[in-house]
Amino acid sequence: MRLTLMSALIALSLSGAVLASEDVSKVNGTASVEAGQHAGNVSTVNGSVRIGDKATVEKASTVNGSVELGEGATANVVKTVNGGVSLNENARVAGDLSNVNGRVKLAKGADVKGHLENVNGDITLDHAHVGSGIETVNSDITIGDSSKVEGGILVKKPNMGWHSENNRPPVITIGPHAVVTGTMTFEREVVLNVSDSATVGKIEGATPKKFSGANP
């Protein structure tokens, strides 16, 4: 009996080793994972990262290029410096999503469990969810219809290290039936539009402009 149990444990251990997810790494060009596949860290320096539908990866990251998670795909962490980030329908980031220069778009059912951070580039949620707050410096933010952000929103004051030729105030829009829990804090001038059907928490540093209908 003991030999049988030990044999089973050894078999499971070997099976786990065989099934261990491998990294996908490039310097130039696209790093990709096919639909339904599993991988470890998927990264490139000069190029994009593409994670196929319902694929699962540990980390999706690049320096100069975009990151796209296909429909129903999952990553623990998503990170880029210069390039947009797109989460297609029902894509999921179990941890944080961070970007510096580029748009961030979450499609219907997309979910970032952790913190979403960006510096320059629009942030748009469409029936999507962020679990631990949104932080930016210069981004326009649209929390679209029926989206939810837990942990509030922080728009930081630019410092000497962040140069932007566009000095207009960021536009923050909380759309119809959207929910923002926690505090929305604005350390710089913004235009804050809040739907009359949205639910928001405490607001610091801005006066909301109420609107009806789909858009301000």
TrEMBL record:
<protein>
    <recommendedName>
        <fullName>Polymer-forming cytoskeletal protein</fullName>
    </recommendedName>
</protein>
<keyword id="KW-0732">Signal</keyword>
<feature type="signal peptide">
    <location>
        <begin position="1"/>
        <end position="20"/>
    </location>
</feature>
<dbReference type="InterPro" id="IPR012332">
    <property type="entry name" value="Autotransporter_pectin_lyase_C"/>
</dbReference>
<dbReference type="InterPro" id="IPR011004">
    <property type="entry name" value="Trimer_LpxA-like_sf"/>
</dbReference>
